[in-house]
């Protein structure tokens, strides 16, 4: 049921890094600054609690303009940063300022499809947060809408997981997951504020929302069953992401989509793989509180941020020392001068 993730590209394009992980810190001797050593050795294993870099522009309120984007931006159509069923993302440069950005080209051939994209624009207009990608501009043509976004130069997170030359420490996973949960917590607060400002019927309408799309291996059981979704539906997906960051394995991935969906409904998973030998008990408890079939029993975003695995600095120091010891034991002996 577990699989090494060469198939991770589906979600990887959504997880570009906005900052360096916590344990890629300044290193001495022949080691690189902010890079990867030839030995899996971290000399300063402390948690990086600094915020990721902010966007190179102030938060904007954007609407789709009926102009040709080529009049204002130079798009590198050969360089594809990411893509999916609905379109592709390309690197671009604003002609007037020289600012490097990303152009997300979304296919929208009818008014219904365009309304969906414009709703996405309205959502992004409310997302002024350092952990969330920022919207710069939008342009509408006959067959598509192009969103001009903050450019992420950190690469795809899951590419690092499957890279045998990259050592992802547990503290790195803590940094990434905490940033994601801070973002989800912010999104939840925005939605609740909007709901409270409207009629009570809108709250009931939200509670009855169903979703029938997504990357199969990340889908929650209620989506597979076409049941109602809620804020806690995202918690399941974040449990999957955490599991994968710590192991490079997907707990429910099958040989095809049908088997994957059946595995999700069966909810049979464990920490028996070799990749979890050095994983802390707190990390395992964190995942166990997210991968719960009944969404009402799952840990929420604010509760997750209070969980010791994300919040206990003493635990972070303890885990980093254990990891450092294990890595030192695994490292080959240095040659004598």
From TrEMBL:
Q: Which keywords, in A-to-Z order, does the entry hold? A: ATP-binding, Nucleotide-binding
| Sites where the protein binds ATP | 104
Q: Which residues form the Protein kinase domain?
A: 75-310
Q: Which domain of life is it from?
A: Eukaryota
The protein's matches in InterPro entries, at most eight in alphabetical order, are given as: Kinase-like_dom_sf, Prot_kinase_dom, Protein_kinase_ATP_BS
Per UniProt, the ranges with Low complexity bias are: 14-23
Q: Which residue stretches belong to region Disordered?
A: 1-25
Name the Gene Ontology molecular function terms of this record: ATP binding; protein kinase activity
**Keyword ATP-binding (UniProt):** yes
Which named protein is this?
A: Protein kinase domain-containing protein
